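Lab notebook, design round three. We kept the backbone fixed and only want residue identities now. Task for the bench partner: fill in a sequence for the structure below.
Input structure tokens:
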């Protein structure tokens, strides 16, 4: 009897192993076969100098003082007009809201649905006290060691200027797009985009514009970042997570610290926050994450290929590993971040009020309502009042991978970064593009930056810089993308 059970188990294992092996090696590559694009005839060093010249303009956006840096935005606008004369002679330029820019490049076919390329002019400030941690003055626009240095090179003047360089070149070559092309350059992306990008989306909607597709900043060309993948991974964001901040408050009777109650305001709030952090929202390898891993699996080697090609069997194991890393965990679920706690102002006084803020990045499929329900249940204290932040936003819709836009972007990436694997992905941060779901069903998020793991902290951090060689690839990518839009897909 025992022998028969053992043989049965052995047979099951053999069958499973065979199924895993066959499934692994039969899973085909989803990469588009295409020849690399011919290298551009461009003076990349001169282009880098033009980008460097824009870094001293301190176009830092502010939520509370929208007009505080108007003069810096005006300098940038004048500089763009000076450096890109063909663009400004050919495209229609409009200033929308405070200092957002909308350029219109009329297409040759009025019946063709227009497209939009997005980049933002504003940037985050330098964190006070960190200036000396930079290798160069963060607003110098220094060019050294093969890089353009300074705040905004990566986020997001690099994209903005690469688009301008590509279009200036195309106009000089006599190219005219088939579809009308809009350039959308917000001025307040870092503080919500409500004045800039949203105003432009609403303006275009009022004019009856419906966009075929949109491309904004987003995911990157990750080199050596994804375990098991020897090639760089160029990830095209199909969606971005929603933004949900909730403010919590608990009121109790204040008192003297010599006679504390059994449960103080601080203790109750702390216990509730600990319960919340311990009870994360449910997650899984599904939706966009499943699409991404399904596309990357055939390009991986060894055990990683086996595991990702057989998620029907290995899903729980893979998920457990992904959850150990903050970056990969964020792709699987709505994340919970405790960001602010306030209570008390004197060491011998029991405060009568404790406050906290919790920030959720909401996975497509969840909603602000479902997050609030989870929040209240996990806190487990009905005395804690919950208030929504007015700037909260739902997750974006998930854009299709079988659209003309995705195919055009994918093709341009393969042509400009022939060593990279292209896959769909999920943007875990917020961008201006979320406002354009108002006028398009195909909104994508991709920045043609080559980055290694050590480069990721440079976004919003110290020593932000862009390599000149990569900047040439970026210009190539945007030119190729626009050329692809004029070809049948």
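Proposed sequence:
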């Amino acid at each position: 009897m025992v022998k028969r059970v053992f043989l049965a188990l052995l047979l099951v294992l053999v069958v499973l192993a065979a199924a895993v092996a066959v499934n692994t090696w039969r899973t085909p590559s989803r990469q588009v076969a295409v020849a690399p694009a011919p290298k551009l005839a461009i003076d990349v060093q001169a282009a880098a100098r033009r980008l460097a010249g824009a870094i001293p303009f301190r176009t830092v956006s502010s939520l509370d003082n929208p007009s505080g840096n108007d003069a810096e935005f005006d300098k940038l606008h004048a500089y763009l007009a000076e450096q890109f004369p063909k663009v400004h002679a050919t495209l229609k330029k409009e200033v929308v809201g405070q200092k957002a820019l909308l350029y219109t490049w009329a297409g040759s076919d009025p019946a063709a649905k227009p497209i939009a390329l997005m980049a933002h002019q504003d940037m985050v400030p330098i964190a006070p006290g960190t200036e000396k941690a930079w290798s160069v003055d963060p607003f110098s626009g220094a060019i050294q060691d093969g890089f353009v240095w300074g705040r905004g090179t990566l986020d997001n003047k690099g994209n903005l200027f690469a688009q301008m360089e590509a279009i200036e070149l195309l106009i000089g070559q006599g190219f005219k797009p088939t579809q009308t092309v809009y350039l959308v350059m917000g001025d307040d992306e870092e503080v919500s985009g409500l004045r800039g990008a949203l105003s432009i989306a609403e303006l275009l909607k009022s004019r009856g514009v419906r966009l075929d597709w949109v491309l904004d900043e987003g995911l990157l060309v990750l080199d050596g970042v994804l375990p098991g993948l020897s090639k760089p991974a160029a990830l095209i964001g199909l969606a971005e997570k929603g933004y949900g901040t909730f403010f919590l408050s608990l009121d109790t009777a204040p008192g003297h610290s010599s006679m504390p109650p059994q449960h103080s305001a601080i203790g109750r709030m702390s216990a509730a926050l600990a319960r919340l952090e311990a009870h994360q929202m449910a997650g899984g390898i599904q939706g966009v994450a499943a699409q991404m891993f399904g596309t990357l699996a055939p390009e991986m080697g060894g055990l990683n290929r086996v595991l990702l090609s057989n998620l029907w069997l290995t899903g729980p194991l893979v998920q457990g590993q992904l959850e150990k890393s903050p970056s990969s965990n964020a792709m699987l679920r709505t994340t919970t971040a405790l960001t602010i706690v306030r209570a008390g102002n004197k060491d011998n006084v029991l405060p009568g009020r404790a406050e906290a803020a919790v920030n959720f990045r909401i996975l497509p499929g969840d909603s602000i309502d479902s997050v609030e329900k989870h929040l209240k249940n996990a806190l487990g204290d009905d005395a804690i009042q919950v208030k929504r932040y007015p700037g909260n936003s739902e997750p974006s819709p998930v854009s299709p991978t079988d659209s003309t836009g995705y195919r055009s972007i994918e093709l341009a990436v393969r042509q400009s970064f022939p060593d990279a694997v292209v896959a769909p992905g999920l943007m875990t941060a917020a961008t201006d593009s979320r406002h354009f779901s108002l006028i398009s069903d195909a909104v994508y998020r991709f920045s043609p930056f080559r980055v290694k793991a050590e480069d990721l902290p440079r976004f919003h951090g110290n020593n932000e810089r862009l390599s000149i060689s990569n900047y040439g690839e970026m210009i190539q990518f945007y030119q190729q993308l626009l050329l692809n839009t004029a070809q049948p897909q």
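Keep this in mind before ordering anything: The first strand starts at residue 92 and ends at 96.
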